[in-house]
Write a structure and sequence with these properties.
Layout lengths: L1 H34 L5 E5 L8 H12 L5 E5 L1 H11 L3 H10 L2 H4 L11 H7 L4 E5 L10 E3 L2 H10 L7 E2 L8 E7 L4 E5 L1 E2 L1 H8 L4 E3 L2 E3 L2 E5 L1 H4 L3 H6 L4 E6 L13 H12 L4 H6 L3 E4 L12 H17 L1 H10 L23 E9 L3 H11 L12 E2 L1 H13 L6 E8 L2 E8 L5 E10 L3 E12 L5 E9 L3 E9 L8 E15 L2 E22 L2 E19 L11 E13 L11 E11 L4 E5 L5 E6 L1 E10 L1 E3 L3 E13 L10 E2 L11 E2 L8 E2 L3 E13 L3 E13 L11 E12 L2 E10 L5 E7 L4
Parallel strand pairs: 1-2, 1-12, 2-6, 4-9, 12-13, 14-17, 32-33
Antiparallel strand pairs: 3-18, 5-8, 6-7, 6-11, 10-11, 14-15, 16-17, 18-19, 18-39, 19-20, 20-21, 21-22, 22-23, 23-24, 24-25, 25-26, 26-29, 27-28, 29-31, 30-31, 31-35, 32-34, 35-36, 36-37, 37-38, 38-39
C-alpha cells in the first residue's frame, strides 16, 4: 500500500511538471508571437572616456521601462559598455563591475605584484615610471603614453567565452558593432566580427594617451575621430528605432585649453563632429547626459557614482518619451522583453574547469617555468587540469612579463566541451626595462634614481639589474639574478656608493663624514614564496674614508681604510596592502650577521693602524615587526616593535647603531627610524624600541599620521634599563601622488630636546 501511494504521488508530480512546462512553453510562444513584426530597437552609446559611465544609468532606466534592445553599437567607452551589455551584463551587473575596479591600476601599465617577489614589489614602490623596451624589433604596443596592457587584460577577463574570433551579429546574445579609426588612411573601421576584447580596445585607443592597436596593415585608434555616435551603423544593422546616449559637454573655449590633456581632448572632440549631426537626425530618442565638471579621466569612485546617477536621472526625465516610444512599438505597459542577458556570475571570482593548456610563442624552458611555479599539470590522457579564475589568470600573465621578461602576455579562455582551454600567448621579449625615480626633501634636496633591467638571452632566465642614484649620496649597483626554478633566485651583487653623511649628537650636527664603500655579495639561497623571502649570503665590504669635518668637541674617530667579510641570514615577510599607507597585513624582517675581517675573526687595530690582536667576530641581530588594525574604513592603528643588538668585544664604528628619520636603512644600512628625531644619531650597541602609529585617511589619497615611539638603549644588555627612556612624538600630513608621498612631518623628542620639520616628495630610496 505504501509503495502504491509513493508511485501515485510521483505520477501526480510529474503530471504537474509537464503541465507547467507546457504552460511556460505556450507563454513563451505567445510572447514571441506578440513581438513578431515589432520594430527593432537599436541602442547607440557615444564615446567620452570616464564620462561614458553615464551610459549605465540610462540602460538601467531602459530596463526598468521594459524596452527591448535588439542591436547595440558604440564607440570608445560606448563600445566597452555596449560590448559588455551585448554579451551578458545587464545594467546592474555593469554598475557593480565598474565600481569594484581599481581604475588607477586599470588605466595604467603598472604590474599587479601582490604574488610576485618582495624585491619586485619594492621596485614598484621606488620608481614612479617604468617602461619596457624591445630594441631592434618593432614594438607593436608602442605609440602611446599608456600601452594599455591592464585594460587588455581586463577585457579578456570580462569577455570570457567570447575571446576568440566570432561574428558579433550571429554569436552574441545581442548583435553588436563598434568603431575604430585607421590612422594610416584616416578611414572608419567597423567591427562586426573578430576578437571582441581587441575590438573594444581598438575603439577606445585615445591618440597619444593609449597605444594604438595594430591589425595587419592598419593602425587603429579611437573610433570617435570618425564616428563618435554610430547611429548609422545601428540603422544598417536593421534598427527601426534608435535610442541614443551622448555624454559630450559644452564646446570648449580658449580659456579651457590649460594643459596638454585638455588640448588632446579638444582635438578629439573637434574630430568627433564627423557624422554627428547626421546621426543625431536619425535618432528617435536622444538622451544627452550632463557631465559638466568631469572629464575623460574622471575614474574616481565618487565621479563614477555621480556619472551613473546623472545618466539615470537624465533618462528618467525622458520617461514619458520612453513610454510613448514603447507604445509606438505596439507594446503594452506591462510588457517585459525576454531577458537575453541575465546577471552574469562575477567573472572575477567564478572558477572554470580547465581542459588543457596551450603555450604560444614561448620556449620550452619558459613553459616549464610557468608549469612549475603555478603547478599546471602536464598534458596526459585523462588528466584533471583543475580550475582557473581571474586572479590566477592575472598572476600567470604578470609572471610572464616580470619573471620571463615578455613585453606582452595574454591569457585566453577558449570554450572546450564542459570547460575551457587556457591559451597563454607571449609577445616579444623585452631587451631592457627602464625605471625612473625622483625625490626631494629638506635634507638631501633633489635625488634621482634610475634602474635598468637587462634580461640575458640564456636557456635559463637570467636578469641583470643596474641601479644608478644621483644626489648627495651617489650609488651604482649591479645585480645578476638567476631564475633556475619557480621560487629560488641565486644572486651576485656589486655596489659602489659615495656616502656624504651628517652625524648629529642630541639634535646638533657634530660632524660630517665622507667615504666610499665597495661591496660584493653572493646570495646562493634566495628563496621566494608569495609574501616570504629567505636569504643566506656572504658579503665583502671595503670602506675607503676620504674626509671628516667636525667641530672641536666632536668625537675623535680615527679613519682608517678597512675591509670586512660577513655571513648573513635574512628573513622577510610582508603581506601589507600598501607600501607606505597600509590598512591591513603585517610586515616582519629579521637578520643575523657574523662580521669578520679575516673570514673568522676581527683584527683589533691601534690608532696608528697596527694590529693589537684578533678577537671573535661581531654578531648582529636585528628585527622589526609591524601590523595594521583598521577600525571602520579610514582609521588604522599600526603597532611596531624593532631593535638591533650588537655582540662582541670589537664593534667597528661603521656598524654602530644609528637612529633618526622616517625609514629603515635610509642613509646607512643599520639606520632605524625614530619619531621626533629627524637626522642620524648614534646610540648604544643594544637598542630596542616600540612604536604606535595612528593613520587617518581623508578623502581618497590624503593621510594624517600621528606617531609615538619609546626606546631603551645601552652598550650592554644587562644595563639596558639603567638608562633613561628615549621618547618621541611626530605628526605628519601626506598626499599619495603618482610620484610618491608628498607631505610634511613635525616632531619632537626628549633626546634632541628640539623640534624638527621635514618635507618630502617622492618614494624613498
Amino acid at each position: 500500500m505504501y509503495m502504491k501511494r509513493v508511485v501515485l504521488m510521483l505520477a501526480v508530480v510529474l503530471t504537474c511538471v509537464a503541465v507547467m512546462a507546457q504552460a511556460d512553453e505556450a507563454g513563451a510562444e505567445k510572447q514571441t508571437a506578440a513581438t513578431q513584426g515589432r520594430p527593432k530597437v537599436g541602442v547607440v552609446l557615444s564615446g567620452g572616456g570616464a564620462k561614458g559611465m553615464a551610459h549605465i544609468g540610462v540602460l538601467k532606466v531602459l530596463e526598468r521601462a521594459g524596452i527591448p534592445v535588439d542591436i547595440v553599437t558604440g564607440t570608445s567607452m560606448g563600445s566597452i559598455i555596449g560590448g559588455l551589455y551585448a554579451i551578458g551584463y545587464n545594467a546592474n551587473a555593469l554598475d557593480s563591475m565598474v565600481r569594484v575596479q581599481d581604475w588607477s591600476y586599470v588605466i595604467s601599465d603598472r604590474e599587479n605584484l601582490r604574488r610576485q617577489s618582495l624585491s619586485d614589489r619594492k621596485k614598484q614602490n621606488t620608481y614612479f615610471f617604468t617602461t619596457g623596451m624591445t630594441i631592434g624589433k618593432r614594438d607593436r604596443n608602442a605609440g602611446g603614453f599608456i600601452k594599455g596592457k591592464n585594460l587588455a587584460e581586463l577585457f579578456q577577463q570580462l569577455c570570457s567565452g567570447y575571446t576568440d574570433s566570432i561574428d558579433f551579429t550571429r554569436d552574441l546574445p545581442i548583435p553588436f558593432a563598434c568603431v575604430a579609426t585607421n590612422i594610416i588612411d584616416n578611414s572608419e573601421v567597423r567591427f562586426h566580427s573578430g576578437r571582441l576584447p581587441q575590438a573594444m580596445r581598438a575603439s577606445m585607443a585615445i591618440p597619444a594617451a593609449f597605444s594604438p592597436v595594430r591589425m595587419g596593415d592598419m593602425v587603429l585608434v579611437d573610433g570617435g575621430l570618425k564616428n563618435n555616435y554610430p547611429a548609422d551603423i545601428a540603422r544598417e544593422m536593421g534598427a527601426d528605432i534608435i535610442i541614443g546616449v551622448t555624454v559630450q559637454g559644452a564646446p570648449k573655449v580658449a580659456d579651457d585649453m590649460g594643459n596638454a590633456m585638455s588640448i588632446i581632448s579638444q582635438i578629439v572632440d573637434v574630430n568627433c563632429k564627423n557624422k554627428y549631426d547626421e546621426n543625431l537626425a536619425i535618432t528617435d530618442l536622444h538622451v544627452q547626459v550632463d557631465t559638466k565638471g568631469y572629464g575623460s579621466a574622471s575614474f574616481t569612485p565618487a565621479a563614477i557614482d555621480t556619472l551613473i546617477r546623472r545618466g539615470e536621472e537624465e533618462a528618467m526625465r525622458h520617461w514619458d518619451d520612453i513610454v510613448s516610444l514603447k507604445q509606438r512599438m505596439g507594446l503594452g505597459e506591462s510588457f517585459r522583453p525576454t531577458i537575453l542577458h541575465p546577471l552574469r556570475p562575477q567573472v572575477f571570482t567564478e572558477r572554470q574547469r580547465v581542459t588543457g593548456y596551450t603555450f604560444e610563442n614561448m620556449t620550452p624552458q619558459d613553459e616549464r617555468f610557468i608549469r612549475q611555479k603555478f603547478n599546471l599539470k602536464n598534458q596526459k590522457p585523462g588528466q584533471d587540469y583543475g580550475y582557473i579564475d581571474a586572479a590566477l589568470e592575472q598572476q600567470i600573465t604578470t609572471c610572464m612579463r616580470v619573471d620571463l621578461f615578455y613585453q606582452t602576455a595574454e591569457c585566453r579562455l577558449v570554450p572546450d566541451g564542459d570547460g575551457v582551454r587556457v591559451v597563454l600567448s607571449a609577445g616579444n621579449r623585452k631587451n631592457v626595462q627602464l625605471h625612473a625615480g625622483f625625490r626631494f626633501d629638506t635634507e638631501e634636496y633633489a635625488t634621482v634614481q634610475l634602474g635598468l633591467d637587462i634580461p640575458l638571452k640564456t636557456a635559463v632566465p637570467v636578469n641583470t639589474d643596474i641601479t644608478l642614484r644621483l644626489g648627495k649620496r651617489l650609488k651604482t649597483r649591479v645585480d645578476l639574478t638567476v631564475h633556475p626554478t619557480s621560487f629560488t633566485r641565486p644572486t651576485i651583487s656589486y655596489e659602489f656608493s659615495r656616502n656624504d653623511i651628517d652625524i648629529y649628537m642630541k639634535g646638533h650636527r657634530s660632524y660630517n663624514i665622507l667615504y666610499n664603500q665597495f661591496q660584493g655579495e653572493l646570495t646562493p639561497i634566495n628563496f621566494d614564496l608569495k609574501n616570504f623571502n629567505l636569504q643566506l649570503a656572504a658579503r665583502w665590504d671595503f670602506m675607503h674614508y676620504r674626509n671628516k669635518l667636525g667641530s672641536e668637541d666632536s668625537p675623535q674617530v680615527t679613519l682608517k681604510n678597512e675591509h670586512f667579510i660577513s655571513y648573513r641570514a635574512r628573513v622577510n615577510y610582508d603581506s601589507e596592502d600598501h607600501f607606505y599607507f597600509p590598512t591591513r597585513g603585517s610586515r616582519f624582517k629579521a637578520e643575523y650577521a657574523y662580521i669578520t675581517n679575516d673570514f673568522s675573526k676581527l683584527k683589533q687595530r691601534a690608532a696608528d693602524g697596527s694590529t693589537l690582536g684578533k678577537k671573535k667576530g661581531m654578531s648582529e641581530v636585528s628585527a622589526d615587526w609591524r601590523t595594521s588594525i583598521t577600525f571602520g574604513s579610514r582609521f588604522t592603528l599600526q603597532p611596531m616593535l624593532y631593535g638591533r643588538l650588537l655582540f662582541g668585544s670589537v664593534v667597528p664604528a661603521v656598524f654602530g647603531n644609528t637612529i633618526g628619520g622616517n625609514w629603515f636603512g635610509h642613509y646607512v644600512e643599520q639606520q632605524m627610524p625614530f619619531a621626533g628625531i629627524g637626522n642620524m644619531e648614534y646610540v648604544g650597541h643594544q637598542f630596542v624600541a616600540a612604536q604606535l602609529q595612528a593613520q587617518q585617511r581623508i578623502a581618497d589619497n590624503n593621510f594624517v599620521l600621528l606617531r609615538v615611539t619609546g626606546a631603551q638603549q645601552s652598550d650592554k644588555v644587562k644595563e639596558m634599563f639603567d638608562h633613561h627612556t628615549l621618547f618621541g612624538l611626530q605628526a605628519a600630513y601626506y598626499y599619495n601622488t603618482m610620484f610618491g608621498p608628498a607631505g610634511a612631518t613635525f616632531g619632537y623628542s626628549n633626546h634632541t630636546k628640539k623640534p624638527y620639520f621635514f618635507i618630502n616628495l617622492g618614494y624613498e630610496f
